[in-house]
Amino acid sequence: ETLQIILPYAVGLSIVGLLESLMTATIVDDLTDTTSDKSRECKAQGIANIGVGFLGGMAGCAMIGQSVINIKSGGRGRLSTLVAGTALLLMVVFFEAQVSLIPMAVLVSVMIMVSIGTFNWGSIRDIKKYPITSNLVMISTVIVVVWTHNLAYGVLAGVLLAALFFANRVGHFMYVSSDYQESDDTRNYQVVGQVFFASADKMLAAFDFKEAVSNVVIDLNRAHFWDITAVSALDKAVIKFRREGALVEVRGLNEASETIIDLFSVYDKPEEIDKVLGGH
């Protein structure tokens, strides 16, 4: 019961913590012209937060504001982070009364200046130059974060939109060409591109199932199948051609596509064909 209560909050905190740490690492890399091992940072953060939990402490992550202030104050190495952390610990433990005298307005002004310094103003200035899909992702992410006060929701919305736009764009690069060999009455189809849920229907629509030919060759040498939707489209194409009396040959599969087709295709399994075509 306790786990059910704390799990949603734990997952949310872990996502936000990882995202902020990754963003902080990216900003620090840009400011210092260095390259950080982000995978190592995430692993270290996870291990440290697990250990803190056993000690009754509070989980933490890299902070953009403090990191930027540290860098702009001249800090470049690990010693700077150690000094900053030690100073913060001393202020919280031994100088709590003095720190509490600092007006909230001062802290807010510091964070505002950090925000001004870290914000990419060029993203607004050049917004007309960017693709409309990139602008939609950026604006949607900002709106969701501001509306929900939750960075995880904003990033999730941005990732989902970016994935949808990417799938739609890649799907347009898939095409099917064909040629007819009169000598042996064969129609050759060459499928080129990435075949997945966004382009499977386009591939299927490119086949002429009513053409009266003796042989059909589907050449997949320049195609890649990604999911079961693509496999299902290939199944339907082969089965429909066979129902029209044509001999169908599928050739040119790469290793990855052959693996997924062998696992999920049914065009060579008569007992499964009716299920694919809805029993018709």
Description of the structure:
- The chain has 280 residues and is an alpha/beta fold.
- It folds into three domains: 2-119, no CATH class; 120-171, no CATH class; 175-276, STAS domain (Transcription Regulator spoIIAA), CATH 3.30.750.24.
- 62% of the residues lie in helices and 12% in strands.
- The protein has helices spanning 2-32, 38-54, 64-72, 78-94, 96-99, 104-118, 122-125, 132-148, 151-171, 200-205, 228-243, 255-264, 270-276, and strands spanning 175-181, 186-195, 215-225, 247-251.
- It has a four-stranded mixed beta sheet.
- Strand 2 (186-195), helix 10 (200-205) and strand 3 (215-225) form a beta-alpha-beta unit.
- The mean pLDDT is 83.
List the SSEs and their pairings.
Elements: H1 2-32, H2 38-54, H3 64-72, H4 78-94, H5 96-99, H6 104-118, H7 122-125, H8 132-148, H9 151-171, E1 175-181, E2 186-195, H10 200-205, E3 215-225, H11 228-243, E4 247-251, H12 255-264, H13 270-276
Parallel strand pairs: 2-3, 3-4
Antiparallel strand pairs: 1-2
- Uncertain stretches of 5 or more adjacent residues: none
Q: What string gives the helices and strands in order?
A: HHHHHHHHHEEHEHEHH
Principal-axes geometry comes out as elongated
Q: How can the largest sheet be summarized? A: 4 strands, mixed
What share of the residues lie within helices?
55-70%
Rounded mean pLDDT is 83
Q: What is the first-to-last residue Cα distance?
A: 49 Å
Fraction in beta strands: 5-15%
Number of helices: 13
**Major sheet strand order:** 1-2-3-4
Number of strands: 4
Oligomeric form of this entry? single chain
Whole-number total of structural domains: 3
Structural class by sheet pairing and helices? alpha/beta
- CA-atom Rg in angstroms: 29 Å
